[in-house]
Design goal:
The protein contains eight helices and nine strands. By secondary structure, it is α/β, with parallel strands linked by helices. The protein has one domain: Nucleoside phosphorylase domain (Rossmann fold, 3-Layer(aba) Sandwich), CATH 3.40.50. Strands 5-8-7-6-9 form a five-stranded mixed barrel, surrounded by four helices. α1 crosses α2 and α4 crosses α8. The longest helix has 15 residues. It binds the ligand O=P(O)(O)O[C@@H]1C[C@H](O)[C@@H](CO)O1 and guanine. The site of the ligand O=P(O)(O)O[C@@H]1C[C@H](O)[C@@H](CO)O1 has 13 residues, from β5 and α7. Ligand LQZ7MJT6 binds next to β5 and α7. InterPro entries: Nucleoside_phosphorylase_d, Nucleoside_phosphorylase_sf, Pur_Nuc_Pase_Ino/Guo-sp, Purine_phosphorylase.
Length: about 290
């Protein structure tokens, strides 16, 4: 778990990038991270090329159901894309540096923007299961506790020591997302708000869900924010959304309990709509990634 071991330095990451370059005939410009239940997104790519995580030297391996562990390279409307079909979570036992390692590798490959998706519980009573919430901002509960992937010596070849977060989520892409939601009949089901990350793997206690809500969170999940920090540090544009798979329980009187199986089912039912949403956003922002 050492923060500054060779595995994470510029030269080691460049070796991994060079291995990937030797397998893929183009330089991807857009990274899409497929959250739980969103493994169908790469199906939209033309001429896909798949690299399994276990073929890539020192790449972490996926351990969560619904996260296949594959990079899928391909194009969409001429945009060169790489999808991570499977991401890494802190609750899997990986260090915060390991879960964000792919982001810097993608930067070295030429990626200019990251679209991150996640399955999340909703804290905002106006949001329904099956809705989308585009991230306007986040509450980094891991960083409140001192866990931050940018901690440790800063390599300025990636980015500056101190990274602002007040404009982390690209305003133009958020605007496009709302336009697309309207175009595809999702206007009433597409919100904008604040995502809170907790470590997991447990879902929230009633008191925790209430506290996060008081702090200003609209959704809560177990991923995305560390990836956003590293992507912004190295200058990528960032767009992210939560797919709402369950309501967080904020009352002791409720019998319901969140579970991963239901979360996968809910995501599966809406996967075509989510794919359409992502495709159309890429289409409308295409000139930025060519
Ligand atoms: O990768 P994401 O953030 O979509 O995955 C979330 C967190 C857990 O893996 C799972 C909880 O059911 O979904
Ligand atoms: N922490 C957390 N992560 C989730 N991922 C999907 N649903 C939830 C949830 O309710 N809480």
């Amino acid at each position: 778990m050492g923060d500054n071991t060779d595995e994470f330095n510029y030269e080691s990451l460049e070796t991994v990038a060079e291995f990937i370059r030797s397998k893929i005939p183009f330089s991807p410009k857009l990274l899409i991270i497929c959250g739980t239940g969103m493994a169908g997104i790469p199906e939209v790519l033309d001429n896909p090329i798949v690299l399994n995580y276990n073929e890539i030297p020192t790449f972490p391996l996926s351990t969560v159901q619904g996260h296949a562990g594959k990079l899928v390279f391909g194009t969409l409307n001429g945009v060169k894309i790489v999808c991570m079909k499977g991401r890494f979570h802190y609750f899997e036992g990986y260090s915060i540096k390991t879960i964000t390692k792919p982001i810097r590798i993608m930067k070295l490959l030429g990626v200019k923007a990251m679209f991150a998706t996640n399955a999340a519980g909703s804290l905002n009573p106006k949001f329904q299961v099956g809705d989308i919430m585009v991230l306007r901002d986040h509450l980094n509960m891991l960083s409140f506790g001192g866990e931050n992937p940018l901690r440790g010596p800063n390599d300025s070849r990636f980015g500056e020591r101190f990274t602002p977060m007040n404009k982390a989520y690209d305003r133009q892409l958020i605007k496009i997302a709302h336009e697309v939601a309207k175009d595809i009949g999702l206007a009433d089901n597409c919100h904008e708000g604040v995502f809170a990350i907790v470590s997991g793997p447990n879902y929230e206690s009633v008191a925790e869900a209430r506290a996060l809500s008081i702090l200003g969170a609209d959704t809560v999940g177990m991923s995305t924010v560390p990836e956003v920090l590293v992507a912004r540090h190295c200058g990528m544009a960032v767009f992210a959304f939560s797919f709402i798979t369950n309501r967080c329980i904020v009352s002791y009187e409720e019998n319901d309990e969140p579970n991963h199986r239901n979360i996968l089912n809910v995501a599966d039912q809406r996967s075509e709509k989510v794919k359409e949403f992502v495709c159309k956003i890429i289409e409308k922002s295409q000139e930025r990634w060519l």
